[in-house]
Amino acid sequence: MRWSALLLGAVFVLGCGPGWEQYNAKVAELQKTKKQMEENQSKWDKDAAGLQNAIRVLNEHNERLKKRLKDLGQDVSKLEAEKGAIGEDLEKHRKQLDELRRAQALTEARLAQFRSLLQKFKAMIDSGKLQVTVRNGKMTVKLPEGILFPSGKAELKPEGQAVIEQVTDILKAVPGRAFQVAGHTDNIPIGRGGRYKSNWELSTARALAVVKVMIDRGMEAKRVSAAGYAETDPVETNDTAEGRAKNRRTEIVLLPSLEELPSLDDLLK
Description:
This protein is of the alpha+beta class and 269 residues long. The chain folds into 2 domains: 44-122; 128-265, CATH 3.30.1330.60. 64% of the residues lie in helices and 11% in strands. It has 7 helices and 5 strands; from the N terminus they run ααββααβαβαβα. Strands 1-2-5-3-4 form a 5-stranded mixed sheet. It is rod-shaped and about 170 Å long.
């Protein structure tokens, strides 16, 4: 009993002294530090969560950028391929445009030449000695049989020879042109006993007779040729007398020059 009382007294003495106050102060400080640490931990946890979310967003953005870069790379390759194709198309169209311009220039030159010839032939056209037409893309001077030849014969009338000489004087002045003289008949067969056995022979003989006069008049022989078509190329029906009369004709055809013909490369294309 005595020792217990002494111990209690000692504890009481200590609890009320300076040591107890220090203890309580330390405990309070520790509690404050613990609370501060808990608050800091909570803040750090929040910051860490925010950083992780930001990292996730950045990773997603990075993946999108990588995909976009890949797509752009494919687009660039595609654009480069398209650029090459467009360049080829442009070059092709440029060549076609150049060819069209060249063809237009040739066409305009031909038209100018044809207009000039029409003007020079005007008096003969007005007098009914000849006609100037365009058949199958070629300018053709058409002379009726009645002016040039007696029926069934290939010897030129004096009037016919004079017409051919007039025509030759005009045509031989045309530069760079060759001419084909074409004889044509109707479909009536030649009767027996005549000099010519068929319309083929008659049409060819008439063409040759015109060629001879043209050469004698000064046309270069290398610029003129003869052909007989008989009744195979009519301009009117052979069922009427008027049609047959128009089919019996001699034509001088202006042949295309070499510049107007397509090149071998164009033909191969």
